[in-house]
Amino acid sequence: MTWPIAVAVLIAAITHASWNALAHAIDDKLQAFTLVGLGGGIGGLALVLLAPLPHADAWPFLLGSVVIHVTYQTLLMKSFKLGDFSQMYPIARGTAPLVVTLLAAVFVGEVPNAWQTAGVVLASCGLAGVALWGLRGGGERPKWPALAAAVCTGLAIASYTVVDGVGVRDSGTALGYCGWLLLLQGWQIPLYTLHRERGAFLGWLRPVWVRGLAGGLLSLAAYGLVLWAQTKGDLAPISALRESSIIVGAVFGTVFFNERFGRSRLIGALVMVAGIGLMLHSG
What we know:
mainly alpha, 81% helix, 0% strand, membrane
């Protein structure tokens, strides 16, 4: 992995954790994800008008990804509703890298070299340390429904990562692919909310619309950077590096939501940094 790709993915990781924190800060998660969808859809429309149309070969992947993304957002919304941000976000994101590595090897033919494999495994161990810290101590029983929702969210992340990795390479335009993806999937939850709230729709959203729409635009920026990176490098190390957003998410949970960070999470973060170093060493 080259430094320009690494920097782009790290910026995407920070941006991604930021929009997730904005969504979590809104008490009503349906409000949050309705506005995130609207913000992403509006940004997607702008890209569609400016960027070339993706090649025909990319459309089956793009449409399949829309379905997976809507499933992902629904599961993420559920996990945020049931559990702490600093616990659910790391579990959801940390499930993905090893699954992506396996799927990319089987379906895309991207078998990582020794350095990449070591980096992905080490980074995943660090992610596990950050994620699993929230399941121990304090005398509290694990929130199993929240845990199940977060793990399923991670599997959805791995699925759309591989589908989009193939699709964006076939599209000929990362901007166009990103625009159509956000445009098509961004309106699903808002349409459901409009049907449910009807005449009260705008008034219901007004108190939190700035934070929600900002989250949607940040989600577009984050995923646009990842899609561009996937046209330049292998899927597995990009996925593992992207999940450094877990560290940012844990910090956000501590600073903004009064959720403990803890020594175990610090150790996990350092292990993940070592894994990132190995992936960069792999070139």
